[in-house]
Specification:
alpha/beta; 6-stranded mixed β-sheet; 10 helices; globular
Length: 240
Amino acid sequence: MIEFKHVSFAYEKNAPVLKDLSFHVKKGETVGLIGANGAGKSTVMKLLLGLLSGEGDVLVDGTRVEKNTLGQIRKKLGFVLQNSDNQMFMPTVYEDMIFGPLNYMLSREEAEKRADAALEQLGITDLKHRHNHKLSGGEKRMAAIATILAMEPDAILMDEPTAALDPYNRRVVINTINSLPQTKLITSHDLDMILDTCERVILLDRGEIVADGLAKDILTDKALLEAHRMELPFCFAGRA
Protein backbone atom coordinates (compact mmCIF):
# COMPACT_ATOMS: atom_id res chain seq x y z
CA MET A 1 0.00 0.00 0.00
CA ILE A 2 2.81 2.41 0.96
CA GLU A 3 6.38 2.00 -0.23
CA PHE A 4 9.59 3.99 0.05
CA LYS A 5 12.43 2.94 -2.26
CA HIS A 6 15.87 4.40 -1.51
CA VAL A 7 14.43 7.77 -0.52
CA SER A 8 16.74 10.58 0.55
CA PHE A 9 15.81 14.14 1.42
CA ALA A 10 17.53 17.27 2.68
CA TYR A 11 16.10 20.67 3.56
CA GLU A 12 19.60 22.11 3.25
CA LYS A 13 22.49 20.98 1.09
CA ASN A 14 24.82 18.49 2.81
CA ALA A 15 22.39 18.11 5.75
CA PRO A 16 20.30 15.01 4.90
CA VAL A 17 17.14 14.41 6.91
CA LEU A 18 16.42 11.01 5.31
CA LYS A 19 19.18 8.74 4.04
CA ASP A 20 18.42 5.98 1.52
CA LEU A 21 15.18 5.06 3.29
CA SER A 22 13.40 1.90 2.15
CA PHE A 23 10.32 0.27 3.74
CA HIS A 24 6.82 -0.83 2.87
CA VAL A 25 3.47 -0.98 4.63
CA LYS A 26 1.09 -3.69 3.48
CA LYS A 27 -2.63 -3.17 2.89
CA GLY A 28 -4.52 -3.35 6.19
CA GLU A 29 -1.37 -3.11 8.31
CA THR A 30 -1.02 -0.68 11.23
CA VAL A 31 2.54 0.55 11.59
CA GLY A 32 4.03 2.88 14.18
CA LEU A 33 6.77 5.22 12.98
CA ILE A 34 8.79 6.24 16.03
CA GLY A 35 11.97 8.12 16.82
CA ALA A 36 13.32 11.05 18.80
CA ASN A 37 12.85 14.63 17.62
CA GLY A 38 14.67 15.16 14.36
CA ALA A 39 14.54 11.50 13.35
CA GLY A 40 12.65 12.30 10.13
CA LYS A 41 9.11 11.14 10.96
CA SER A 42 7.31 14.31 9.84
CA THR A 43 9.38 14.41 6.65
CA VAL A 44 8.20 10.88 5.79
CA MET A 45 4.58 12.03 6.13
CA LYS A 46 5.16 15.13 4.00
CA LEU A 47 6.80 13.07 1.26
CA LEU A 48 3.84 10.68 1.23
CA LEU A 49 1.42 13.58 0.80
CA GLY A 50 3.54 15.17 -1.92
CA LEU A 51 4.25 18.26 0.16
CA LEU A 52 7.95 17.57 -0.35
CA SER A 53 9.90 15.69 -3.02
CA GLY A 54 13.30 14.08 -2.72
CA GLU A 55 15.44 11.42 -4.35
CA GLY A 56 14.15 7.88 -4.79
CA ASP A 57 10.59 6.63 -5.15
CA VAL A 58 7.58 7.07 -2.87
CA LEU A 59 4.61 4.95 -3.95
CA VAL A 60 1.02 4.68 -2.77
CA ASP A 61 -0.87 1.63 -4.00
CA GLY A 62 1.71 1.25 -6.77
CA THR A 63 1.47 4.86 -7.97
CA ARG A 64 4.52 7.08 -7.69
CA VAL A 65 3.97 10.28 -5.70
CA GLU A 66 4.76 13.13 -8.07
CA LYS A 67 3.20 16.36 -9.25
CA ASN A 68 0.91 14.87 -11.89
CA THR A 69 -0.41 12.10 -9.58
CA LEU A 70 -1.10 14.16 -6.44
CA GLY A 71 -4.86 14.31 -7.00
CA GLN A 72 -5.03 10.54 -7.36
CA ILE A 73 -2.71 9.95 -4.38
CA ARG A 74 -4.54 12.28 -2.01
CA LYS A 75 -7.83 10.52 -2.68
CA LYS A 76 -6.23 7.38 -1.28
CA LEU A 77 -4.68 8.99 1.81
CA GLY A 78 -6.31 10.62 4.79
CA PHE A 79 -4.13 12.68 7.14
CA VAL A 80 -5.13 13.35 10.75
CA LEU A 81 -3.05 16.32 11.88
CA GLN A 82 -1.56 16.62 15.35
CA ASN A 83 -3.35 19.94 15.86
CA SER A 84 -7.02 19.48 15.03
CA ASP A 85 -7.45 23.28 14.85
CA ASN A 86 -5.37 23.16 11.66
CA GLN A 87 -7.73 20.58 10.17
CA MET A 88 -11.18 21.73 11.27
CA PHE A 89 -11.75 25.06 9.54
CA MET A 90 -15.49 25.15 8.76
CA PRO A 91 -18.03 26.47 11.31
CA THR A 92 -19.51 23.06 12.23
CA VAL A 93 -18.37 19.45 12.31
CA TYR A 94 -20.83 18.45 9.58
CA GLU A 95 -19.75 21.23 7.23
CA ASP A 96 -16.15 20.09 7.67
CA MET A 97 -17.11 16.50 6.96
CA ILE A 98 -18.88 17.15 3.67
CA PHE A 99 -16.33 19.72 2.45
CA GLY A 100 -13.83 17.12 1.18
CA PRO A 101 -16.29 14.79 -0.56
CA LEU A 102 -17.97 17.76 -2.27
CA ASN A 103 -14.58 18.93 -3.53
CA TYR A 104 -14.08 15.46 -4.99
CA MET A 105 -17.20 16.16 -7.04
CA LEU A 106 -19.53 13.85 -5.11
CA SER A 107 -23.18 14.83 -4.94
CA ARG A 108 -24.34 16.49 -1.74
CA GLU A 109 -26.51 13.44 -1.07
CA GLU A 110 -23.50 11.11 -1.27
CA ALA A 111 -21.33 13.49 0.80
CA GLU A 112 -23.96 13.61 3.55
CA LYS A 113 -24.36 9.83 3.42
CA ARG A 114 -20.61 9.39 3.98
CA ALA A 115 -20.58 11.93 6.81
CA ASP A 116 -23.50 10.26 8.59
CA ALA A 117 -21.85 6.84 8.22
CA ALA A 118 -18.56 8.11 9.70
CA LEU A 119 -20.30 9.75 12.65
CA GLU A 120 -22.23 6.55 13.30
CA GLN A 121 -19.09 4.41 13.01
CA LEU A 122 -17.32 6.48 15.68
CA GLY A 123 -20.36 6.87 17.90
CA ILE A 124 -20.30 10.67 17.79
CA THR A 125 -23.56 11.53 16.05
CA ASP A 126 -24.17 14.04 18.85
CA LEU A 127 -21.31 16.17 17.46
CA LYS A 128 -22.89 16.48 14.01
CA HIS A 129 -24.08 20.08 14.24
CA ARG A 130 -21.74 21.27 16.98
CA HIS A 131 -19.59 24.31 16.32
CA ASN A 132 -15.92 23.42 16.09
CA HIS A 133 -14.79 26.20 18.41
CA LYS A 134 -17.02 24.80 21.17
CA LEU A 135 -15.61 21.26 21.09
CA SER A 136 -13.27 19.88 23.73
CA GLY A 137 -9.85 18.63 22.66
CA GLY A 138 -11.01 15.03 22.65
CA GLU A 139 -14.21 15.80 20.78
CA LYS A 140 -12.30 17.77 18.18
CA ARG A 141 -9.82 14.91 17.67
CA MET A 142 -12.67 12.46 17.14
CA ALA A 143 -14.37 14.89 14.76
CA ALA A 144 -11.12 15.26 12.83
CA ILE A 145 -10.90 11.46 12.44
CA ALA A 146 -14.54 11.39 11.30
CA THR A 147 -13.77 14.06 8.71
CA ILE A 148 -11.05 11.84 7.26
CA LEU A 149 -13.28 8.74 7.31
CA ALA A 150 -15.91 10.61 5.31
CA MET A 151 -13.34 10.83 2.52
CA GLU A 152 -13.19 7.00 2.51
CA PRO A 153 -9.40 6.82 2.08
CA ASP A 154 -7.56 3.54 1.60
CA ALA A 155 -4.90 4.53 4.13
CA ILE A 156 -4.82 6.90 7.10
CA LEU A 157 -1.77 8.82 8.29
CA MET A 158 -1.84 10.04 11.89
CA ASP A 159 0.55 12.51 13.51
CA GLU A 160 0.54 12.29 17.33
CA PRO A 161 -3.16 11.32 17.52
CA THR A 162 -3.23 11.20 21.34
CA ALA A 163 -1.18 14.33 22.04
CA ALA A 164 -2.63 16.56 24.82
CA LEU A 165 -5.63 14.31 25.44
CA ASP A 166 -6.89 13.39 28.90
CA PRO A 167 -6.83 9.66 29.80
CA TYR A 168 -10.48 9.03 28.90
CA ASN A 169 -10.30 10.64 25.46
CA ARG A 170 -6.90 9.04 24.83
CA ARG A 171 -8.50 5.62 25.35
CA VAL A 172 -11.41 6.55 23.06
CA VAL A 173 -8.97 7.50 20.29
CA ILE A 174 -6.98 4.27 20.78
CA ASN A 175 -10.15 2.18 20.56
CA THR A 176 -11.16 4.13 17.46
CA ILE A 177 -7.82 3.50 15.77
CA ASN A 178 -8.12 -0.22 16.53
CA SER A 179 -11.60 -0.33 15.01
CA LEU A 180 -10.57 1.15 11.65
CA PRO A 181 -9.94 -1.36 8.84
CA GLN A 182 -7.79 0.96 6.75
CA THR A 183 -4.02 0.78 6.40
CA LYS A 184 -2.58 3.08 9.08
CA LEU A 185 0.80 4.76 9.56
CA ILE A 186 1.07 6.47 12.94
CA THR A 187 3.83 8.74 14.23
CA SER A 188 3.95 9.37 17.95
CA HIS A 189 6.09 9.80 21.05
CA ASP A 190 3.33 8.03 23.01
CA LEU A 191 4.88 4.58 22.90
CA ASP A 192 2.18 3.05 25.09
CA MET A 193 -0.38 4.10 22.46
CA ILE A 194 1.82 2.68 19.70
CA LEU A 195 2.01 -0.60 21.61
CA ASP A 196 -1.80 -0.64 21.96
CA THR A 197 -2.50 0.06 18.29
CA CYS A 198 0.39 -1.17 16.12
CA GLU A 199 1.54 -4.69 15.42
CA ARG A 200 4.72 -3.40 13.78
CA VAL A 201 7.12 -0.55 14.53
CA ILE A 202 9.73 1.23 12.43
CA LEU A 203 12.35 3.04 14.51
CA LEU A 204 14.06 5.98 12.82
CA ASP A 205 17.18 7.77 13.98
CA ARG A 206 18.70 10.66 12.07
CA GLY A 207 16.93 9.69 8.89
CA GLU A 208 17.79 5.98 8.90
CA ILE A 209 15.85 2.86 9.87
CA VAL A 210 17.60 1.29 12.84
CA ALA A 211 14.89 -1.28 13.65
CA ASP A 212 11.81 -2.67 11.91
CA GLY A 213 9.82 -5.46 13.52
CA LEU A 214 7.12 -6.51 15.94
CA ALA A 215 6.04 -3.69 18.23
CA LYS A 216 6.32 -5.85 21.35
CA ASP A 217 9.92 -6.76 20.49
CA ILE A 218 11.16 -3.25 19.74
CA LEU A 219 9.23 -1.48 22.49
CA THR A 220 10.54 -3.81 25.20
CA ASP A 221 14.17 -3.46 24.12
CA LYS A 222 15.48 -0.93 26.65
CA ALA A 223 19.02 -0.89 25.27
CA LEU A 224 17.83 -0.32 21.70
CA LEU A 225 15.48 2.51 22.64
CA GLU A 226 18.00 4.28 24.88
CA ALA A 227 20.70 3.99 22.20
CA HIS A 228 18.43 6.04 19.96
CA ARG A 229 17.33 8.67 22.50
CA MET A 230 14.07 7.03 23.54
CA GLU A 231 12.70 5.37 26.68
CA LEU A 232 10.58 2.31 27.39
CA PRO A 233 6.80 2.71 27.34
CA PHE A 234 5.46 3.50 30.82
CA CYS A 235 3.84 0.09 31.05
CA PHE A 236 7.29 -1.54 30.90
CA ALA A 237 9.41 1.13 32.59
CA GLY A 238 8.75 -0.18 36.10
CA ARG A 239 9.93 -3.66 35.17
CA ALA A 240 13.30 -2.60 33.75
